[in-house]
Amino acid sequence: MIEASNDDPKRRGRLRLFARLRSNFLAGLIIVAPIGLTLWLIWTVVGWIDSWVWPFVPDAYHPEALINRILNRGPADQITVNVRGIGVFIFLIFTVLVGWIGKGLIGRSFLGIGERLVDRMPVVRSVYNAAKQLAETVFSQRDTSFDKACMVEYPRKGIWAIAFISTNAKGEIEKKLTNGEPVVTVFLPTTPNPTSGFLLFLPESEVKVLDMTVEDAAKLVISAGLVYPAKKNGTEQIEDAS
Predict the structure, then answer these.
(1) Is 117 inside any structural domain?
(2) Domain span including residue 19
(3) Which of 57, 112, 175, 183 is most buried per CB count within 10 Å?
(4) Number of domains in the chain
């Protein structure tokens, strides 16, 4: 019994030390994982763009060839260089030039001719139209984002779900549904994938507009309710579990 009583404080000390190490590890993982994932993603995307761009650049203008030519290196003692990011720079310049030409009269004419040719190809037409619609949705500078975040009763009365207000109903839908009250067009996303969901048309009185931004509401949906928006003073809203 005496040995057990002597060992208990040591055991408790080891457990507390292990708990502190585990807590510190998890806290560090929360900090390191997003940074590492972001850097890895940037490194991978930059390498992918470089591998896609460099085949279109003549070998004489590759970084290795230029450096070896400047240093007068022969075939036997050439320097091997892996320079990432130059392909991205070339891609950016190329894309800007294409956009500048495409916005002009001549560019729009050639683009229209090309799209008319694509419309005559059954499979290619579907792929091109889908890719074009996706690119216009993601990269368009027009104001097509959601207006506000809101809450609606779904899938039944008494159960509330986060949704996003896009605009008021218009045209035939407004004429069919309106009864003296504006009808709101609402997108109800699914969790944790907010790209899928339901398009709802609700009376304005059944929609509760939230003060949080659309971005904060999207984070709340994606995290399945784990990430709540921060307070105005910058501290997180953390409820006491006790």
Answers:
(1) no
(2) 1-103
(3) 183
(4) 2
Place of tokens 């708990």: 19
Region 176-195 average pLDDT = 85
pLDDT of residue 166: 85
Letter string b/e over residues 106-128, b meaning 16 or more CB atoms within 10 A of that residue's CB: eeeeeeeeeeeeeeeeeeeeeee
- For 189-209, what is the mean pLDDT? 89
Q: Is 196 a domain residue?
A: yes
Name which residue leads in pLDDT, 217 or 127.
217
> Residue 230's beta-bridge partner residues?
236
Task: Give 149's contacts (C-beta < 8 A, 6+ positions apart).
Answer: 162, 163, 164, 165, 209, 210, 212, 213, 214, 216, 217
Asked, for residue 119, whether it belongs to a domain, the answer is no
Asked if residue 215 and residue 158 are part of one domain, the reply reads yes
Provide CB contacts within 8 A for 107, sequence distance 6+: 101
